[in-house]
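Why do we care about 3D structure at all? Because function follows from shape, and shape follows, mostly, from sequence. That is the central idea of this module. The next example makes it concrete: a single protein chain, its amino acid sequence, and then its structure expressed as C-alpha cells.
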Amino acid sequence: MPIDEPVIEKETKAKDALDLPWNVVVHNDPVNLMSYVTMVFQRVFGYSHERARRHMLEVHHQGRSVVWSGAREPAELYVQQLHGYLLLATLEKSA
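And the structure:
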C-alpha cells in the first residue's frame, strides 16, 4: 500500500499576524514642546534633525504620524521607549 505525501498545513493566522508590518504611531498631545518631540525622534530612531522635524510637524498638524514600520517586536520596543519619554504612542497593523 503506497504512503501518501504528507499534507503541509498553512501557518496559523497568529503567526501571520506577528509577521505583518506594524506601525509605530505617535499622537499629538498638548503637553510636550515641538523641540522636545523632535529631539526624542532623533534619539529613539536616530533620525536626522530634518526627518525628525517632519514627523513632529505631521503629529502637530495632522494629530498623528507613523514614525516607524516593521516587525512587531522592535515596534513594541519603540512604543515602550516613546512612552518612557512621555509621548503618546501606539502600535497598529499596517494595512
